[in-house]
Specification:
By secondary structure, this protein is α/β, with parallel strands linked by helices. The protein has 18 helices and 14 strands. It comes from Rhizophagus irregularis.
Length: 475
Amino acid sequence: MTYQIYIEEVLEFLENDKDTLYSCLFVNYFFCEVTVKVLWRNIWKFKLQSDASLQILNTLIACLPNTSKCLLYSKGIIIPTPTSKSPLFDYVSFCKSLSIGEISVIIISYFKNQQQSKTSEESKGMKKSIKLVIKEILKMYMNKINNLKRLDYILKVDTKIPYNIRFINFPRARDCLKNLTKLSCASGIESKFFHLLSTVCHNIQSLHIFYRGDQIRSEYELMKLIYSQNCLKKLKINCNGTYCWKGLIPSLKKHYNTLTKFYLSDGIYDGRPLFFITELINLQELFLLSSNYYELEYAILPKLRVLRIYGESFNSLNIFLENNGKNLECLECYLCKYIETDTSLNLAIAKFCLKLKYLYTKIGKVETLKEILNNCKQLEKLKVKLYTHTKVSDALEIISKFSPKNFHELHIEDVKMFKSKELESFFIIWKDRVPFRSITFTIGGIMVKNENMKVMKVIEKYKKLGIIKKFELIK
């Protein structure tokens, strides 16, 4: 028994390593059973190729109860299964995650491939067939899963399947959904879904809301769902259109003390308020894509560890970093319009963000890069975008000489021109660092003509010497 528990723990540890788990399927029955449980717990997190997607669909069809199979057969829907025998395992019962979007894509892809060999008359009922298959599979999920943890109800734009399969009304759906901890949903879902979910689910900790265009059917019910949660920790809002999400703010007040992660991607800013973020006193991660940050100028977020700022400009980012930079470990700063130059911002980073482990910033004057490397002693990863006038050779020289002892990953993007000898000079200095760490290096840009072969020779040389752990060239 001790041996089996040990094996289960090892396989649990490998839950994100699809290739290794796949090889474990063929060891013996015990390995196979445990591996299948781990794989199917969240099968959708893996990037599935078309063949793998078809195998998943075949397996789901094989797991359907006989009543569903007979119903599909009576409608002329025949999807081949791996074998005529019952499946070796009840795969769906192992699932803790359900992605309606992924299921829809797989089914639609299958029917589109079949459509090529059908007449126009036979193809007319394809949409109804797709919807019926989705409905029966969702019904099976509701019946067989006792403790679903993650639900993704964001459909792909091109699926053209409406949000009107009322799976929450299926038998045992409430038992299946009552312990949800993570929900991703779109604004176009009918209000009944949010209403019923708010009466059943009260332990959602991570919520992702996607606004697509002007489509909003259920803001009031969505507000009720947010308010009904006991401990919301992560909120992510994506806006792909002109709809204003500020109507949700009143429902967030209950969660000001519990929210630790907030993500907002708001491409169109029309006076939508950000001031409520200043009330999130326990916030640890903040991602913002907007075009105006003036309301955050004097925000005090004492527990902030991760900050990602994207958009047009943040005129007072220096002040924000002075107030909130002391505990930052990760900073991504990609602003299209800096005030004057990047110099003052990078000097502020060097002065106020001394605990950084990862940084992404623009570099105009390489002297500011030196300041950052000298002051941020815990820095491990750096991603920089060089201005046109900044020489890559100067940046590489400073990084090789002044980067802190734990530094091991470098990404330079949008380099206008570089040569193999510039890379070799960097690696010559790097190999003599004390203590030595092999480096992961990514560079994106344009090589001098006829330099490609020379660059690759340099890379292979220092890979063999163990200087380079991984290298990627993005043209």
